[in-house]
Sequence to fold (436 residues):
Amino acid sequence: MTDTKRHVLIIAYYFPPMGMGGVQRTLKFAKYLPAFGWHPIILTVGETGYFAFDESLMKEVEDLGIEVVRTDSFDMNRMFKSRKPVKMPGEPVRKIFQYLGDLFFIPDTKIGWKRKAVKAALEIVRTRSIDAILATAPPYTDFLIGLELKKRTNIPLVIDYRDSWLEYPFKYFPTPYHRWLHRRLERKVVRGCDRIIVTHRRVKENIVKRYPFLTYNDVTIVSQGFDRDDLNHVPVQRPPSHKMRIAHAGTFYGGRNPRVLLQALHRVLRDSPALRGRFELNFAGAPRKEDQALTAKLGLQNEVHFLGYLEHRVCVKHLQEADVLWFVLDNDLQSPGKLYEYFGTGKPILASVAEGYTKQLLQESGIGICVPPDDVDAHAEMLKRLLVMFERKELPVSSSTFIERFDRRGLSGELAKVLETLMDIDRGAFVKVNGS
Fold:
């Protein structure tokens, strides 16, 4: 029988068995693209060090029969080559490592993967019929690999920005020369690729503004999302409780930390001792010593629990069992995947967010209750209001119409449409539009 599917080579350094949010988008695209006529082949790194590994995601890859090609890499993570998770450093140490990495490696510390990845990809192209290449970043080394393959094979290239390159909040440019080099590399990539996908409207606006040869039609927004199979995998059977359970999923770093919520909860319980025992705050994700120390200092050990890293579906079940979900984001450039899984649960979201698109989206959802990210008083007041709504069974519920927008299957269909537009191109005759 002839294989009628088209084939897309997906370049993704982050992929299961690695865990955390960076792997979800690629995994779910690979899961659902076959339903739209596209067979994915994943090119990723082999055994390496990382902060979390998720064997349940690896089992999902295996059960789905996703074709994965793994290569060695000479990047810094190789120093911790083991399935044992690397311990999450404290914020000061993380910043030092990030700065040193950005000082000596361009575009990032994964550049040592490029040569091996390109060699493996060319072998895949030689032995398989590849119709399109999709490179997802960060790390932005993935984009450079994709661009090299485009130059060598003339196979159409789509780049997928999970986060902004030049405006990424946790990226350092130690000197003006570093920033110039990064901008030069990004310009080469966006000029050399055939389509651009982003997860966030602000990222699209910045790219189009920065490069006048691009138009809004050159950049497509395919947002982050949630997988219904994850939500429906295990039925939620939480017994009734007088405690309002607040849950957060994800690792804290940079300006994202639980300090404001912990201080607010401390203030509520200090001013109203009768409310002790009415709140339960659970953090799922690699714990940090500074957060645990602050919890102890504020005397919240009975209210606050650090659950550690949980397998993905266990984490989603944990979210479904909560009464309120907490989301924190101190910038308007990132688009954390967990927010869309929050949307998928339909649970109310206490959102500590900056002004911008993400806040607008939360307000549109009908379940987003937004407060300024650094305002302890506003958080304390909202905790008390939410407790009243919880007791009266008046917590907000999202509409199914809003939730449907972020179903991973539908989002994969949007990606398939982008890929399909490339198939109308005569590879030998295709010419990028000239511009300054």
Q: What stands out?
A: Residues 228-404 form a domain with the Rossmann fold fold (CATH 3.40.50.2000). The chain has two domains: 6-224+407-422, 228-404. Residues 42 and 436 are 34 Å apart (CA to CA). Confidence is low (pLDDT under 50) at residues 426-436.
